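FAQ

Q: What does a record look like?
A: Structure on top, sequence underneath. For example:
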């Protein structure tokens, strides 16, 4: 089939590769402009010695229906693992493990919170259940009534300090690098609804296998940052590395600041969403160990009240096959936004030492002699902040998207952040651009 037209996709992350793949499937000739030497964006997997490290996004959720459907569509489902998830946390010096396959018995038997707090927690579960239909990736209009409190405000009003410290704070911090004093309570409900799952899903060759596979279907120009995008009305001009090319349409799939800088014609609706975006920093430190720690936890979600510098510690050798050889261990320590803000002057060796010290708090049987490989990444823009009122802003933005433009936008800014949100945003942008460029009843 001859190409229906030419499309530029700026940004080769999950949103960009999903959009590019859908446009290619619709018969367009697609070129991705990627500023790095790889696709995937914050989905990044790399091999170091015996260890396969996911140094950005860590796993797929069972509720990532669109991502799993696309994994099946492109032939990667045979490489997907589905393993039991055992959560853990600490209160003081004591460890608590949670089997998400047995949520009721685990909740009733755990002693991390008191029985009065367990009774109060029923209110939180009922509120989550009441809003379950809106806790997805498409429509947040019905969340208006609850998107008026922060997690801290909700816990203070409806729960208590114990539930805030050992449920509310660790859930939004450990999964979204978020501050409960700033974060909408709607995100807490979304997390309870979608992330406390009995299984952890992954691709055996790394989380970035999906965007890599999608990019195989289109042309990718690596090391090609885009300086300017101009919509002339009948064409879209894209300037990268001093050269300008003309396309029938474009999808801008970058983080907020580059999108604003490259597209001076950005409409006010999109500019308002992007200009008000804030990000949280995240330190991702992978530790390849000669000896596997003796702990059944898939991950520790850390209570900021107990350890404000650590977001989570993930046992990668448990979460998916092929991450470490039998008998060896692989941990990922996630360091908080606040830690990175305080330590911008410190080198990677200092950050590594601190991360290893944090890992030993949760896995005390490891020692520095066990360290075989490591990797340090500091993400300056890891997760967009979903502060109080943000769901309403996203809902208003979605209702007013310019669906007639030859330039569309895709990101994880217009829905729940992360892999699946970005993927859905990319597919939606591709559908809008397809509708613009393909006339009804056209051959």
């Amino acid at each position: 089939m001859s190409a229906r037209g030419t499309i530029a996709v700026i940004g080769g992350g999950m949103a960009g590769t999903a959009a590019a793949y859908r446009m290619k499937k619709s018969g367009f000739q697609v070129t991705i402009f990627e500023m790095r030497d790889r696709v995937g964006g914050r989905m990044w997997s790399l091999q170091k010695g015996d260890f396969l490290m996911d140094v950005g996004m860590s796993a797929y959720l069972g509720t990532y229906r669109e991502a799993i459907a696309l994994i099946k569509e492109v032939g990667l489902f045979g490489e997907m693992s589905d393993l039991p998830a055992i959560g853990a946390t600490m209160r003081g010096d004591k460890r608590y493990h949670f089997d998400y396959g047995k949520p009721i018995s685990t909740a009733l038997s755990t002693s991390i919170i008191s029985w009065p707090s367990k009774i109060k927690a029923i209110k939180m579960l009922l509120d989550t259940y009441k809003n379950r239909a809106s806790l997805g990736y498409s429509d947040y209009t019905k969340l208006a009534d609850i998107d008026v409190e922060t997690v801290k405000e909700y816990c203070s009003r409806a729960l208590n300090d114990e539930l805030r410290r050992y449920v509310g704070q660790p859930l939004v911090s450990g999964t979204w690098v978020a501050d409960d004093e700033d974060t909408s309570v709607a995100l807490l409900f979304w997390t309870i609804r979608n992330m406390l799952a009995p299984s952890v899903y992954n691709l055996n060759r790394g989380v970035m296998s999906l965007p890599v596979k999608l990019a195989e279907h289109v042309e990718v120009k690596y090391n090609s940052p885009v300086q300017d995008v101009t919509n002339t009305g009948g064409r879209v001009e894209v300037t990268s590395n001093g050269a300008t090319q003309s396309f029938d349409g474009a999808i801008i799939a970058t983080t907020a600041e580059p999108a604003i800088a490259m597209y001076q014609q950005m409409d006010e609706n999109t500019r308002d969403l992007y200009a008000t975006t804030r990000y949280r920093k995240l330190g991702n430190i992978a530790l390849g160990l000669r000896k596997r720690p003796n702990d059944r936890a898939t991950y520790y979600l850390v209570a900021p009240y107990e350890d404000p510098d650590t977001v989570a510690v993930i046992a990668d050798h448990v979460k998916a096959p092929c991450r470490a050889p039998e008998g060896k261990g692989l941990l990922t320590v996630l360091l908080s936004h606040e830690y990175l803000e305080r330590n911008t002057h410190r080198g990677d060796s200092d950050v590594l030492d601190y991360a290893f010290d944090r890992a030993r708090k949760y896995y005390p049987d490891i020692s520095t002699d066990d360290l075989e490989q490591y990797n340090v990444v500091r993400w300056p823009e890891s997760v967009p902040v979903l502060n109080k009122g943000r769901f309403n802003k996203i809902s208003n933005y979605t209702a007013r998207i310019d669906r007639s433009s030859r330039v569309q936008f895709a990101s994880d800014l217009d829905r729940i952040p992360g892999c699946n949100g970005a993927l859905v945003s990319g597919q939606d942008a591709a559908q809008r651009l397809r509708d613009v460029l393909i006339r009804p009843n056209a051959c």
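Q: Is there anything notable about this one?
A: The mean pLDDT is 94.
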